[in-house]
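Field: COMPLEX_INPUT
Field: COMPONENT_COUNT = two
Field: RESIDUE_TOTAL = 1460
Field: MODE = joint
Values follow.
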Amino acid sequence: MKARGLTQQNLLAAAKTYVPTGGRDEFTAFASGGQSGQIIVYGIPSMRIMKYIGVFTPEPWQGYGFDEESKKVLRQGNIDGKEINWGDTHHPALSETNGDYDGQFLFINDKANPRLAVIDLRDFETKQIVVNPLYKSEHGGAFVTPNTDYVIEASQYPAPYSKKFVPLERFNEEYRGGVTYWKFDRKSGKIDPKQSFTVELPPYSQDLSDAGKLVSDGWSFTNSFCTERYVGGIEKGRPPYEAGCSAKDTDYLHMINWKKAAELVKQGKAKKINGMDVIMMDTAVKEGILFLIPEPKSPHGVDVTPDGKLITVAGKLDSHVSVYSFDKIMAQIKAGKFESKDPYGIPVLSMKDSLHTQVALGLGPLHTQYDSKPCIAYTSLYVDSQVAKWNYCEGKVLDKLNIHYNIGHLMTMEGDTEHPKGHYLVALNKLAIDRFIPVGPLHPQNHQLIDISEDKMQLLYDMPLPLGEPHYVVAIKSTTLKPGIRYKVGTDSRTDEPSKGATRAGEERVVRKGKSVEVFGTEIRSHITPETIEAEVGDEVTIHLTNLERAEDETHGFTVDTYNVHASVEPGKTVTVKFKADREGVFPFYCTEFCSALHLEMEGYLLVKPKGYKEVKTVEAKAVYTKADYDKQVKTNVDTQAVIDSVVGYITSVNYKDFPPVVALVDDATDQLNRAKEAKAKMEDAAKKSDWQNATLWAGQWWQYQVKAADIGLRAKTYLEEHGAKKAGK
Amino acid sequence: MKARGLTQQNLLAAAKTYVPTGGRDEFTAFASGGQSGQIIVYGIPSMRIMKYIGVFTPEPWQGYGFDEESKKVLRQGNIDGKEINWGDTHHPALSETNGDYDGQFLFINDKANPRLAVIDLRDFETKQIVVNPLYKSEHGGAFVTPNTDYVIEASQYPAPYSKKFVPLERFNEEYRGGVTYWKFDRKSGKIDPKQSFTVELPPYSQDLSDAGKLVSDGWSFTNSFCTERYVGGIEKGRPPYEAGCSAKDTDYLHMINWKKAAELVKQGKAKKINGMDVIMMDTAVKEGILFLIPEPKSPHGVDVTPDGKLITVAGKLDSHVSVYSFDKIMAQIKAGKFESKDPYGIPVLSMKDSLHTQVALGLGPLHTQYDSKPCIAYTSLYVDSQVAKWNYCEGKVLDKLNIHYNIGHLMTMEGDTEHPKGHYLVALNKLAIDRFIPVGPLHPQNHQLIDISEDKMQLLYDMPLPLGEPHYVVAIKSTTLKPGIRYKVGTDSRTDEPSKGATRAGEERVVRKGKSVEVFGTEIRSHITPETIEAEVGDEVTIHLTNLERAEDETHGFTVDTYNVHASVEPGKTVTVKFKADREGVFPFYCTEFCSALHLEMEGYLLVKPKGYKEVKTVEAKAVYTKADYDKQVKTNVDTQAVIDSVVGYITSVNYKDFPPVVALVDDATDQLNRAKEAKAKMEDAAKKSDWQNATLWAGQWWQYQVKAADIGLRAKTYLEEHGAKKAGK
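Field: COMPLEX_OUTPUT
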């Protein structure tokens, strides 16, 4: 490969990351989509992006925010009645069972508009958005407790809990931070706001959190910056926030006993603010559920070790990583031994007495993740643009690797669970100055894949991120995920309930009531039923569409031209679009997802008549086709059937039942051939009446179904040939 | 690599596609983003996606549709006053000079809402959207003439040109198709609708087009399906469109002499309809600029050979590809020899007399592209799920390759220009059933990269497309693209003019006029000026932000929490966000693009006071810092300076000027150190007055600039070490 100027090490990296056609990536990563407001799903080690999931931003490909079902989810995120059509997603979290990823749910926060979203990993769709009623900003979400009882969300820039204006001069007295514990109900797959609560915190800028596990289960840890409580004002000649917020040598790690906090709420010790239970600081102090420990300058990550015994904090303006001992912390709390109190009366523990060790790693340490090997951790060094591998038991540095450039978070496989999987590490770099082909002033981000399976780390791959700046990513073993490929026919995928618009084949209809036109329609290769929809100017048009396909990946789309509606209708799903027919005219509609050879012909017309339009008596269209046309088409069909029979002959001659994808294809082809029979019956009916026009057209329809069946059959044949199918019975 | 189960062929493919860190992809591909409404930019051969460009759909990461400048572009796409917030993009086209890609502009169409967009490849931003005033639907855009004089856009589903309701029974008489020639003005980089025109066509479903080149320059070719003019109505018992639109054995290839058509318009022979010049069919026939040729059943692609002599058409319900001879066509036209006329009086040429050859390729041929080697073409076979390599001069099949599954378009490098570049082919597959880790019922698409440099085609790579279904893609040699990395300070990137909101450092200000609050602000690592913005409920707030950075990739973002505004402000750009301060309260704002170690501290507050709020006299905040704090910070700074000096010492000791990226970094670091000097001066000023509070904070600010300079210096040092810098002068 000298032609391409590759080194031996490049070739090794290529071999370690290449996933051949049909192969599967070992891990599936879920990255926040940053300012895109979405979630990015990619495979490791190939670093190929599999999907952008619409979460906080409308996304037409998925119909997200365009169909009525998903609009209901998106609009749960309105704030004080205002529509928010984007989000600044930061930290995704996978649901856990006993401290390990279970592959069921994903949570993601919105920093710009304090919200959390729930994504169901059965179908990779967003099912719920909750708005934090207290905060104006939150960066430190989402983090889950070991059994996903709660999803943790911390505020960032302090603001009054009230929705009132309070001058900045009252910052210390009336601005507040906080940590919210959102109760997650695994059965319904939803957050229950009524069972959720917040612990009031001082107006420090709370940042990331982590939940304790095993020995430290029941506690959570949240760090902070700007405990100086500095208020900027560069426009008035004051130093900016960046100076005033980085003046002190330490900030505070917050420790909260969330299990006890939940009990306090049950005991009625919380105060309702904006509809949420809040444990006020004085209560939290009095009940002994809230403590502070100094932590080095402007920290970012706080990360509990897999055994739950140690807590790693990196202060980005300090060159050390600090490892706190949960035991040492507990011993001080038990002994009531506190160094001081903060201005709000919260007990402050001794940093020195809480530390297990401190390790000098380099400039700008940010975030730590763990290896499958005991005592091994990896920390990102922002200013040094390096990943440091180090031993947190013994407090020594083991290896360093240069990355390009300015790494933020890093992530190891399942690296924040009780059982990290090792093998790979991803560096989430903030700059991509000279890494890729140029695409203008706005650059992609750069995630670098690093092999950590050996003593020395090895850089494997540079992955551009084409849309949004992911702040954090989590990765799960791909085999733990068990998403579906179709819905039960007639499902509203956002509620997982049967849709009121669900329609079976043959039961399509249009219901008119006053100014309302409600269409119960279906989609199947390759037509939409009905093909003509009539309305009058001013009508409210509602179109329900059920995808009657059962075949994998046989998604249909739908739009009505110039009406700003779009739907993605996956197999079995029922989707509803709604709009006002506000202009008279002729508006084509069509399937927007390429589904079959006759996809372009999957069309119809919405006809919007002016008010009070009088029907003009129309002349029956002249017949175009004759018996000769009919005979010709029938002959074609008979010939086509011979081809199909030969393919079927091949398939049934081998052990096709040993190949589940082929069994699914055979099912699908059988469906198509059954439909062919129906068309043939209609053809025969017309031919009997010598209606050669319709007989010819139904013969054509019969042929269309044959073509689809042949297409599927050929796919099955190719699959069998490529996967070494053997003669049946051998 | 047996551990990963790779074959020798896999390893070869890995080596052929792997691009090591810092390497560049040889080709840059621009794919339509399908229903996402965007453009997808990816590299070949690595198949890594570099960017999604916002075109028809708002996209917050880029601020597209969120800032005022881009909203103006997006809103050019309103139809009859209605906001359209998505598009169904289909066929991208790169601008050409003398029939070859010049890397300057990109055009893309919207099928669902008949529109065209212009993207400037200097910054990869959408600059213009035009709405077709005649069509309701268009699939066959964009295609350019050899010098990009015109961008060709054909209608798809016929509809009346008038915006009136016309019953389907009047389909033949009043529904129409058409081809629009949008005049492109390269100097302004915009389409000029006033100089554009349309040729009226029968109500066939016009599909794709291609412009003639060299001998056939001046002509364009547009094919069609459903020349049956069938109107469906499955809900009334009629056969569906798919049957009626595929009944005939041939459809029509339309040939239009666009050069002569442009002259006819100048001669006043066009009719103004909805503000556009339209050459009516009877004029087109009379003037001899419009002809039809039969083409096999339901074609998709029409593709002129690199030498302009032949035109390839694939009818997807025919197993042949048909190659027409431009010479033979011209001979017939010259001789006035026509086979018949269509129902609208358009002369129909003999198919037989026009054909150069027909080749039996397989089931479902769709689209053809050309190789750098003479006479070699590649055609996608939808039903067979294959790519066929064939010789169009001699009319013989050379090779076939299975793909997965159901290929739509295919694309070779610059394969529709006069000088195709060969080497790679991309298969745009419509299904990705069993190719990737599962991500729910909605699957990614699958682009497969194929090596065509040797006799036998070789499959190299499967690329999932994570967002939208690309219909077509074009690829250009990466080195032909010359995008910028920054704007001239104060540029409105959507107009490429100086912004009225442009603001220099030190000239930031807030201008209040009645209910309007206009902020002229700046962003630079790591603060926003101003840091406090005050308004009253009901005020219209306008915030202009200029990014003062010159460094590559130093983009800042901006949002005001819960106000649904977002901006991406690349180096030099000025961006404006606007909103009504409709609720009282405290609203943090911050930089949304991770830019520096103190990025999280790049924050401020919008304070919205209730109407008639009376200022409360505030107490001056107590000083927190003492002379001891000041001295300590100064000592830190002096120590830090020593580190910086050592890095600078290293850089200047080697031949850093030979490395342009390092020269840019040194410029940036020098900027930061100059700012450090300014902060230091402010510090000394405060210290002189024994104002230890502000002296300490400005000392901190000095240090912040040092940290940024150190960060940049370390990046430069690493780069030099990794790129073999040598002692200066050696």
